[in-house]
Design goal:
This protein is mainly alpha-helical. The protein has helices at 6-13, 17-26, 43-57, 62-68, 73-106, 116-124; strands spanning 3-4, 32-33, 39-42. It is 66% helix and 6% strand. Helix 1 crosses helix 2 (17-26) and helix 4 packs across helix 5 (73-106).
């Protein structure tokens, strides 16, 4: 099993070393220490950090990451379900924004306030 320093693990993951230290401090990451107290990242710790990184990149906060990685599957699933619902709502809002903005590009009215369709979009927001 390979062992990495915090710097080597951070470089492999493409993050700064202070990020890994912070994740450990808040409980999102478990890292072994050597006799001198230096952090040692074995393959499991690097993989755990990779999971934290992926969960952060899909929008989970650190408290949500910790809950999503909890040993109790029900708690983890609840966090993931809530994030899916939030992302689905965001997708709906984004699609509505695209429709509105696309209309403003094609609108034949000089001012958006003069357009009944634009006014309808504004009332729906």
């Amino acid at each position: 099993m390979r062992m990495h320093t915090v710097g080597a693990a951070a470089a492999e993951l493409g993050v700064e070393a202070h990020v890994l230290r912070h994740w450990e401090e808040v409980g999102a990451l478990t890292v072994r220490r050597d006799a001198n107290g230096y952090r040692l990242y074995d393959d499991n710790a690097v993989e755990q950090a990779r999971t934290v990184l992926k969960l952060r990149r899909v929008g989970l906060s650190l408290p949500e990451v910790i809950a999503a990685m909890a040993p109790k599957k029900e708690a983890a699933q609840a966090v993931v379900r809530a994030k899916i619902a939030a992302l689905e709502s965001e997708v709906v809002r984004t699609r509505q924004a695209i429709v509105f903005l696309q209309h403003t590009l094609e609108c034949r009215h000089r001012y958006l306030d003069d357009c009944p369709d634009c006014a309808q979009f504004v009332r729906e927001a």
